[in-house]
Amino acid sequence: MVCYGKIKKIPKRGYKYGKIILIVEDDRSVSEMMSNYLKKEGYDLLHAFEGEEAIQKFKNKKFDLIILDIMLPKLDGLEVMKQIRESSSIPILIVSAKDTDVEKALGLELGADDYLSKPFSIIEFSARVKAALRRVNYSKDENNVIVFHYMDLTVDTKNFSVWKNEEKIQLTAKEFEILKLFLSHPNNVFTKSQIYQNVWHDDYFSDENAINVHVRRLREKIEEIPSNPKYITTIWGIGYKLGE
Is the pTM of this model over 0.70? Predict the structure, then answer.
């Protein structure tokens, strides 16, 4: 059963307004390039040039997005992300010269929302930043506050919180949006392409690995037996659906 909560008016606003981004990049020329573009787009920015500095700034200020390089001095980006994920589901966009499938899978495994390989075009960079931030705006732009109840799960779309019985479950931004997508369309079967387009809000780049990793991580958090799922099930040869 899917239940809808009370209607509540929420003021609309653009995705750029008041958004604060932390750029964690030790190459100052790359950091400056990203900064110059994002400033023109209207974002507020802070910089960190090594891992320990990134952790300290994350603890001292609330950000809407972290752009994170992997190869950092003192503390590498994967360890930075691991520590951040212990307490926060803030969107994290990895931007790295390490572009192998293994590195991408590892980044997604540790909780990254997206992975952009260097070198990249400013157009693609812009699209990935906007897609990462759009998740935060979606709930703020909705006029209806919706709470889903499905089997043992309760999903509050206003507060981005998920509960299973009495236990709160910490999801990343993309895991939350994937779960919300299925709860919003309980009778639909979604292909990987449709999941990518609905959650990443971008054209599908045939990156099946990203979908597979996020669905598997989501199952590990909400399912009793992830290998025998009852919430998000596989329709072989097609995609995924809600329920058995």
Answer: no
